[in-house]
Amino acid sequence: MFQIEGTPASKPKQSLKTGETENLPPSYFKFFLPMPLYQDASDKKHPKPSGKFIGVLSLAIDLGRFLADQLLFADSEMSLHQVWIIDRDGRLLFQTEHRDMVLRNIHKKDESCNQCHVSFEYVEEILRKKQGTAEYHVRGSPKKLAALAPMAFGNASWIVVVNSSYDQVTALWK
């Protein structure tokens, strides 16, 4: 079970690169993992397992904080703004750089989309490929190279996209 949370967090978070506290965009994507508990073990007080429901153990994971921790561990220069997650239907689930886009679907565009996006063909390519790489350009930004990987949990599936400036990536080969 997962939930998309639409209420922005109000408290400041720590910056990935500087460690300074600043108002970073909120994470909207949290996992809530409930696990029912049953009396299946026996002891002196309960010599025979009853299978009776006794409660729920739950775990909540803030995907934004989880990803930030993983990025710091993998590459201290990487920014959370370089990661976004889209579901198989084209709904943007996680994106910290343009938080107003979160929960919007690429198949339901309006005029505001044209301010940054010339087209959504690169997103369509990402949805088709699900894994590999893609190149794209958004107005006002340098050309980008993205690595994409599928992520599935239960009956939900997403594509995790990590992007970087095309020039920054190709500079390694020059």
Biggest pleated-sheet summary: 5 strands, antiparallel
What is the topology, as strand order, of the major beta sheet? 7-6-10-9-8
CATH topology: Beta-Lactamase
- The CATH class name reads Alpha Beta
The number of strands is 10
Mean pLDDT reading: 76
Q: Helix proportion of residues, in percent?
A: 10-25%
Number of domains: 1
CATH superfamily label: PAS domain
If you compute it from the alpha carbons, what radius of gyration comes out, rounded to the nearest whole angstrom? 20 Å
> How much of the residues is beta strand, in percent?
35-45%
Poorly predicted parts: 1-27
Count helical runs. Answer: 3
- CATH architecture, by name, is 2-Layer Sandwich
Structural class: alpha+beta
Describe it for me?
The chain is α+β, with helices and mostly antiparallel strands and 174 residues long. It has a single domain (2-173), classed as PAS domain (Beta-Lactamase), CATH 3.30.450. 15% of the residues lie in helices and 35% in strands. The chain has helices at residues 63-74, 121-129, 166-170, and strands spanning 2-4, 13-14, 21-22, 29-38, 53-62, 83-87, 92-95, 132-136, 144-153, 156-165. A hairpin with a 4-residue loop joins strand 6 and strand 7 (92-95). The longest helix is centred in the middle third of the chain and has 12 residues, at 63-74. The relative contact order is 0.13.
